[in-house]
Amino acid sequence: MRLKELLSSVGNPFVLRDLLPSFLVRFLGPICVLLLTATACSGAGTSLLSPSPTSTTTTVTAAPSPTTVAPPTTTTAPPAPTTTTAPQAPVAQFTGEQLADPITRPAFLVKIDNHQLARPQWGINQADVVFEELVEGNITRFAAIFHSRNVTDIGPVRSTRTGDFELLSNLNTPLFGNSGGNPTVMRLLNEVDMVLVGDSNVGRAAYRRNNDRKAPHNLLTGTGDIYAAADGRGGTPPQMFSYRDATEDLPVSAQPLDAVEIDYGGYQITYRWDEVFQGWARRQQDTDHVDYDGVQVAPENVIIQFVKYGQSVAYAGSPEVKVLGRGEAWVLTDGHIIEATWNRPTSADVTEFRDADGATIKLTPGRTWIALPRSGTASIAEVDQD
Hints:
- By secondary structure, the chain is of the alpha+beta class.
- It folds into three domains: 3-35, no CATH class; 108-230, YerB-like fold (3-Layer(bba) Sandwich), CATH 3.50.90; 242-381, YerB-like (YerB-like fold).
- The protein contains six helices and 22 strands.
- It has helices spanning 3-8, 13-19, 22-40, 165-168, 183-189, 223-230; strands at residues 108-112, 129-134, 140-146, 175-177, 195-196, 208-209, 219-220, 242-243, 255-256, 259-263, 268-274, 279-284, 287-288, 301-305, 308-311, 319-322, 325-333, 336-344, 352-354, 362-363, 368-371, 378-381.
- The strands form five sheets. Strands 1, 2, 3, 4, 5, 9, 14, 17, 18, 19 and 21 form an eleven-stranded mixed beta sheet that branches. The protein has a five-stranded antiparallel beta sheet with strand order 13-12-11-10-22, with no helix packed on it. Strands 6-7 form a two-stranded antiparallel ribbon.
- The longest helix has 19 residues, at 22-40.
């Protein structure tokens, strides 16, 4: 054999085996294998098997074979699952109804007449929250909050009382609508954190008379007129209540209820659970309470907040509701009654309603009427099945 052929065979030990005597093969074969291994580890290329910084790699090599070497196999563990919490949808501050965007405009609280000549009222069913408080003669008057809906006709609008001040003080500079008031009341009203948009200061820009009624039971306004008159003043109100979602149950203390009766002295009020309206149908002086369009008043929630009344500094004959402090309450929601405690330590605080276990009571999303009677003037009523 020529020397050149011998040298070219060095790179292949299996060819070399056929060209050389067996004792030389046994001597040179391992040397050739070592030479090939050294060449493969010389770093002449970039390895495609380098493990990723975020991967777990396992390399498996086949058993030695006289003719082949198995390619390495890579197993990469799947990435750990990630949990993303969707942001909660905004809800209306006074109804708990879900919104596409938060409502940032101020609340509009307005005094609404409840005299027999003022009924039926305009817009009362579109109010988010309605307070009912005693006035002179043991009759009642409403303080209604409009916020989540635009309402063209609201009224009849009537004068304010000193008891209204604490209904305004925790709403973060709300708009306040009224038809004037006692000079002392109007002077003290200037000290309240609110934007006055009553008929005495904005006049025809936001108020008008309805010719179907006689004054003073015919003064109307609307949210569009009021917000225009406010000209951007006022603050965004806080959340007034907590609400249940569709999967939440009532607390164990909730008891089924047909109806309650409230005796204000001059007016007797009944709230009866109505499955059709899915609300508490209101009756006043044994007559269904309907709005100007003939629609039954039946809010989703009624809170009977038992309070004390004092004497107004503006007029001795005017009762002044006391809504600061602590007391008992009945919360009516979803056909049930929950005995509760209300608590409002300061003017800036939002009133809390808690059940017997101390848990915050969650309402049904929708409208809420808050009755403010004296203690001991409400009772459970039996509904006539006929």
